[in-house]
Amino acid sequence: MYRYILISLILFNNIVYSQIETHLLNGEWVKVKNRMVDGSKNLSESFSSSKFLMWKISNKKICMDSDPVNSIEETCLDFDLVKNLIRTSSESGYEINKLTTDTLIVIQKIKGINENDKLEKLWFVKSTIIRNNYLNKHKSDSILIANEHFTPTLNKKFITEIHKQFLKKSNYPNFDLIGNLVFFPKEEKIEVEINNSNDKNVIENNEEISYIVRTIEKSYGNWNLNDFKNFNKIYIPFIIKSESYKFKGGSHKGTPIFFFLENVNDIDKIYGIKMEDLRASGVNFQNGIMAYQNKEYEKAIFLFMKSFQIDNRNIDALYNSASIYSILNDKIKMCDCLKKLKDLEQTEGTRQYNENCLN
Q: For the whole model, what pTM was predicted?
């Protein structure tokens, strides 16, 4: 009835291949959709200012770019095309589900993982299609608010210069700067619009803020604005978070910039779960397995739910809790777990909830 995902023993599965026209694979591909293979929401995809992903494929090399503004940020991998499998290592790759001149759909393949809610399915279209659609959509506009799929790009990080300057200070500044980069392509200039100028920390760091503004306004020549010269103004929302703090075993100083963000509270979501929390969730999950094997059902539920509370991407903890509640004939609490899975847009959890909890 319900599943326990306790130990994975499945090997890299054999794939039924079809003929791929390899010349169609080369080019720039932009991700437009991402779900799990069974249709569930991908909970491992971190909240991001963009959720942007571009694949640049050529000569058996795939470069993955997840930063829509900094065009120099890429991770490149060599691959072998084995029939319809883009094999990036001996244990992982992407099965080509569909490939045409303008569409690429792939399914993630990882040795030892075969569950359809553990593997991603990604939809891509050629970057030229995205670009042309936006150009056509905004062809009559004079003002544009950029987004991750249609934005000026930067070939040199001005934020590095700012960080180096702040490191020279006796006290590294702490503040959040919220605003917009405003481009004037016809005048070939860029200005900084600050939205939280009345914030106490911004006022107290006026010298540092002025340095940031001057540095950004000098960066115009490092921006690619080829697609934006017909606009009078282009806005890119940003947050700069300058911070210095100590933690056990070390300290941190940094001034990262986050494009397409307007709420400081969203910054933590970009990074996802902390490593120590990930470990803690895993320990509780494994202890839950041992408690279940010892038929300590209440303890197992407690540990599984604690694992989920620490890392709410760990849907296996919810499935296992629902299964144990089923053993205990506690339909109300079983359905509470299944409702959480339904709310997380998990296909199997939704099916079980509809079949068992709506009567």
A: 0.83
